[in-house]
Specification:
Blueprint (H helix, E strand, L loop, with lengths): L1 H15 L3 H8 L6 H14 L9 H12 L2 H11 L8 H14 L6 H10 L3 H7 L7 H22 L4 H17 L2 H25 L11
Helix pairs in contact: 1-7, 4-5, 5-6, 8-9
């Protein structure tokens, strides 16, 4: 009962993006029956300095775990509370979740597993999954795998440089700039002038020398 209640609260926090400073007060609104009495007593004990102040949702979960979960299940429950996908694949994360739920004897309903499974997903995956519809746990897992694959492809595409294109473009640009540079034009002009001068000198040397002729009048 407690585990299902905690899972529902986690889902509400994720859907409405509740900030940390508001989670403790909102979580206390779902207390029923004995849990309500326990919550009121806990607040009184904190005011009388009989127990540490509960400042976060994590602190409140530890308090509730101590109160409502049998000792032999606490270790597995703490693991379940800290269970997140992290760098693992979807299948690895889901397998770890199922194993942990089995160890704490949590009811194996799809609804309970779905809530736990979604709450531990990576943020970028969870944001996409929560706006989609799924009718079963199996379809949800397939959806998550598909979303993760799409995100990985987008990340890979963004991080892939087009080195080959830019290198070849750079070489062509360098060749063009070299051919059209002023220094290149000046070298060509100097070369043409030298060739022209050599041609003139050669023509002058080969032309026959004529003696001047004088006509008498």
């Amino acid at each position: 009962m407690y585990l299902e209640c905690e899972a529902k609260v986690e889902k509400l926090f994720n859907v409405y993006k509740v900030t940390e400073d508001k989670k403790v007060r909102l979580a206390s609104l779902v207390f029923l029956d004995y849990a309500t009495q326990w919550g009121q007593q806990t607040v009184l004990d904190i005011r009388l300095n009989k127990r540490p102040t509960v400042v976060s949702w994590y602190d409140l979960k530890e308090c509730m775990c101590t109160q409502f979960v049998p000792p032999h299940r606490k270790e597995h429950l703490l693991k379940l509370q800290r269970l997140h996908q992290g760098p693992r694949t979807v299948k690895e994360y889901f397998k770890d979740l199922e194993t942990t739920l089995t160890n704490i004897y949590m009811p194996n309903s799809d609804k309970s597993k779905i809530i736990r499974f979604v709450s531990g997903l990576r943020r970028e995956i969870r944001d996409v999954v929560e706006v989609n519809e799924y009718s079963s746990l199996k379809k949800l897992v397939h959806l998550v795998i598909k979303v993760r694959s799409q995100i990985s492809k987008k990340t890979t595409f963004k991080n892939t440089p087009n080195d080959g294109f830019y290198k070849s473009f750079g070489k062509d640009a360098n060749n063009i700039s070299t051919k059209t540079s002023p220094s290149h034009f000046s070298k060509e002009i100097t070369t043409h002038q030298k060739v022209y001068k050599d041609h003139l000198s050669t023509s002058t040397t080969k032309s026959p020398t004529k003696n001047p002729q004088y006509k008498m009048f």
